[in-house]
Give the backbone structure.
Amino acid sequence: MVAGMVLGLREKVLGCYREKNSVLCVGLDPALPSQRSSNVVPPRYVDERNENKSRLNFCLSLVEETSAHCIAFKPNQQYVAGFTYNDHRSLTDTIEASGCFSILDYKLNDIGDTVESAIFHIKRWGYDAITFNPFLGNLESTVKLAHSGERKLGVIVLTLTSNPEAVRYQKETKLNGKPLYLAVAEDVRKHGADGCVVGATGHVTADEIRAIREAAGDDKIFLVPGVGAQKGDPQKVIESGGNVLINVSRDVIYSATPGEKAKEYTELFRTLGARFV
């Protein structure tokens, strides 16, 4: 990324891709040992007196270990809840210094004043993009707020997600005679959002991915969850065309060797023909 320039999300992604030839996004989901029994922050990072320090140090270590093989990191707000301004800035500054960009998986969705408050803080925290849940509306005003000012914040919109419940709420629900996910994809184009969240799991078909691409536009970034622990198929997403950013979380961050696992995924996606243009 070029220092001193105000870049939109697409330009940031393209710059990172050209530098690293990767479409891998590593999801940062740091679970505390008191939270569950497996897939948790390793003991060497745990400070019993400071859970923020435990989670932050784990995330910083993951950035160091995997950043040579990925172009983005996606902290999940549900896992970093309670982070202070300094915690967020430490993470985003480290991500930027590693030659990657950051997406806060916030799934923002609320009335206008509340959205404005969230964007104010998220920009100060240093993130490059957020995920947005469009089902309360406010997409147009959110994009305008996110894209305004000195720091442009990308907006990636939940469209057809990787969880099984997406079938009922995003596919079977109709708006003006078409599946809700297609109506959302059309709004992404209409309001100038930066991309769509499109799952790679079994209930999302290649035909549906192509339909979303046609509705949203060739320039939109597809952030693709569901690969790895959820057993999603990255090939159908890559072969459906367009620019993709494929997220892997648990299968990388809780691996015994996160760097090697990130490298494996990057090489797999290259073999499948993933690219960003």
Remarks:
- The chain has one domain: 9-271.
- The domain at 9-271 is CATH 3.20.20.70 (TIM Barrel).
- The mean pLDDT is 94.
